Amino acid sequence: MGGGTFLVNVVGTNDETNGLDDQSEQVKEITVSTRPETSGPHFIQAHTPTPGTSMGLDDNVYSRLLRERIIFLGSEVRDENANAICAQLLLLAAEDPGRDINLYINSPGGSVSAGMAIYDTMQYVKPDVVTVAMGFAASMGQFLLTAGAPGKRYALPHARILMHQPSGGMGGSASDIRIQAEAMLRTKKEMAELIAHHTGQSVERIEADSDRDRYFTPQEALEYGFVDHVVESASQVSQGGGTA
């Protein structure tokens, strides 16, 4: 991808991660994900309570933000939080199609398939989706930031934006590795084309600029086309960024 590192991992679920008993069948899947190659700061995980569990303080905060049409992506993009974000986008669109939805992003990247579900839902719903970068918007975080409504993509003054080329590990037979590599290259091309579409840059420049890790200051991100405005106050954001 023009904005992330692809990692092809084989993930197995077990009773430690999903609460299944010892007799449960082990499930394995291949996931393609984007994440920075270097470690970064820890991010707060937005927790979606499952049926039968009580809501804690963090859950109440995120629920209260949702009432103000604010969605917060503050962790890696994974299936769990991507499903929640897609549902929140659909809910807010149904409640009031004429009001903006505000997506705040502080994310080091994550699963491509999960991120693409969010991306497609952002384009699918009728309300404009305002995106705001805070902290670190890298890889899939950068991609979702750039995918906001034209003219309504923002960065706070000390945010950082990272774009880099895909990389990953593969395993299995030679045929399996070839299939995985071809799929990764197709995904890389698709993501570069989408970033080019949203930034106004050429696909060739996106591919060249993402050959190595490339960090952008908010001003550089503005000049490149990742965002439309660098702001210091919510009053500078469309409809107050949900905080008015």
TrEMBL record:
What PROSITE patterns would the database entry show? CLP_PROTEASE_HIS (PS00382)
Q: Gene of origin?
A: clpP
Q: Name one Pfam family in it.
A: CLP_protease
Q: Where in the cell is it found?
A: Cytoplasm
Q: Reaction catalysed by this chain? A: Hydrolysis of proteins to small peptides in the presence of ATP and magnesium. alpha-casein is the usual test substrate. In the absence of ATP, only oligopeptides shorter than five residues are hydrolyzed (such as succinyl-Leu-Tyr-|-NHMec, and Leu-Tyr-Leu-|-Tyr-Trp, in which cleavage of the -Tyr-|-Leu- and -Tyr-|-Trp bonds also occurs)
Q: Name one GO cellular component term.
A: cytoplasm
Annotated SUPFAM superfamilies: ClpP/crotonase
Coiled coil (UniProt feature): none
Q: Which InterPro entries match?
A: ClpP, ClpP/crotonase-like_dom_sf, ClpP/TepA, ClpP_His_AS
Q: Which residues form the active site?
A: S139 (nucleophile), H164
Question: Can you cite a GO biological process for this protein?
Answer: protein quality control for misfolded or incompletely synthesized proteins
**What's this protein's family per the entry?**
Belongs to the peptidase S14 family.
Listed A to Z, the keywords are: Cytoplasm, Hydrolase, Protease, Serine protease
Q: Does the keyword Repeat apply?
A: no
* Protein name as it appears in the record: ATP-dependent Clp protease proteolytic subunit
Q: How does it assemble?
A: Fourteen ClpP subunits assemble into 2 heptameric rings which stack back to back to give a disk-like structure with a central cavity, resembling the structure of eukaryotic proteasomes.
Q: Name one GO molecular function term.
A: ATP-dependent peptidase activity
Q: Recorded E.C. number(s)?
A: 3.4.21.92
Functional summary from the UniProt entry: Cleaves peptides in various proteins in a process that requires ATP hydrolysis. Has a chymotrypsin-like activity. Plays a major role in the degradation of misfolded proteins.
The record's top EC class is hydrolase
